[in-house]
Write a structure and sequence with these properties.
This protein has 13 helices and 14 strands. By secondary structure, the chain is α+β, with helices and mostly antiparallel strands. The chain has three domains: about 180 residues, no CATH class; about 100 residues, OB fold (Dihydrolipoamide Acetyltransferase, E2P), CATH 2.40.50; about 80 residues, no CATH class. The protein is globular and about 90 Å long.
Length: about 450
Amino acid sequence: MVKIIRRRSLGIQTVYDIGLAQDHNFVIDQGWIAANCFNKSHSTAYGYVTYQTAYLKANYPVEYMAALLTANSGDQDKVQKYIATAISMGIEVEPPDVNRSGVDFTPLEKNILFGLSAVRNLGQGAIEALLAARDQDGSFISLAELCDRVDPRVVNRRALEALIYSGALDAFNPNRNQLVHDLELILEWAQSRAKDRAIGQGNLFDTMGGDAEAGTAVSSLETAPKAEPVEDFPESEKLKLEKEILGFYISNHPLREIERPARLMAPISLANLEEQPEKTTVSAIVLFTEVKPIITKKGDRMAIVQMEDLSGKAEGVVFPRSFERIGSYIETDHRLMIWGKVDRRDDRIQIIIEDAEPIEEVRLVMVEIPAQDAGNIQQQQRLKEILRQQAGEEGRAKVSVIANIKGQQESQLVRLGAQFRVQNEHSAVKALANAGFRATSSILIDVET
């Protein structure tokens, strides 16, 4: 390939797009050749697009991530990955809001607002009706007023339930269960008022109370019925219903409460699973979202599971030998720490799950090390030797060891490698104490980071 040292315009000329089955060198003039011109020109264009993308992400992160989420709104795996990316950038993704959301993801000052188009069971017609009513008469102030202002044939019960479960009506009442119970009574009330208006017959309360339109509106809304007070859904049920409607956990996540300690125990997230070599042993803290039981030809039980963490999703396989030991944990909505190997087959990546434990039972050993001793080679060797002796049978050591490096002002937690896991936390703590180390045993959910 020759180096271009000068260019000059030849004006407007006819050019051709030549497609070839294989690489080819083109003769330019006097024996000079140009090899792979197509690839070189495209790399320049791609490089420029990369520069533009990086500039937007660095200088307009909220707007950039909102556009990225909107462009990929049809791909749940990508949306979940980008939501995790936004959160890692300090950008919160808020649930939809009937008074603030547009059709797509909306960038706010520091956050991103979920779009109404992402709410399942809420059709385009219903969205257009809601936005038109909002544009014409302003924000909705209650569930009763919303039902009174929109056509119940367009924004029907199914659409309204979807809005409730997604959190889009939390501004009216954060008790979603109460809104669901109120809905049936309010819909009947709103439909009756709509019929009266259609035949030109005003409601008694609409004609009383003076000629102030604002006062009349308030009086009429006060006639809206309400159900008896009920408690809100349990948090787990609320999140489950939210995910069914949005496809994601937005207002919260079952794993968020242990997000920080989880990074110590399982630094590899499911979103980064593609980067792991095949047969690599990994550990992850996950939520099982779907479990498919299987009976083999021999009559043994196994399962294929779909799981997720805060960053993404992955598939797992539990073969019969492992299922015998951990089968009682393999259930939908269970939060588990799993151990297994990366497996690639049929262009898919999976985790062959070999062991699992509920996160409420995940144990660890905490070793306190003064900052001045952290670099002491002899101390390091003594610590390694003790932990190796506590490893026990091969493949059975699951208890991670965390070093708490304590300085005068602050401390830092460091997870030791998988080769230093121990089989029994109590015997490990005792052995470390006998050697002069300060050590304690704990469970994951109690770790402060």
